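Recall from the previous lesson that a structure prediction takes nothing but the amino acid sequence as input. Here we apply that procedure to DUF3618 domain-containing protein from Lysobacter korlensis. The sequence below is the only information supplied.
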Amino acid sequence: MPSTESERLRPGAGQNEIELFVTKTRDELDSTMDELRERFDVKTRSKRAVESFRRDYDKNPTLWQSTGVGIVAVGAIMVVIALVKRGQNG
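The prediction returns the following tokens.
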């Protein structure tokens, strides 16, 4: 990761020093841009999220299965309540 404190070109620097400074600055900028592209790339982030989920699931599948069953149960209860209310208003 590039440093947060940029080096300054000294006053009176020669052409070689200026070219070296520009090259170094360009390399730091390229590195920063690559890092930003990776951070904001939806495909890369999605892959990482799936990989993370798989690792977590492999560590404790019962927890994830229980959570899934709970979500389905809450959804089913909501549907039943909606159908009962619809029948009463109906």
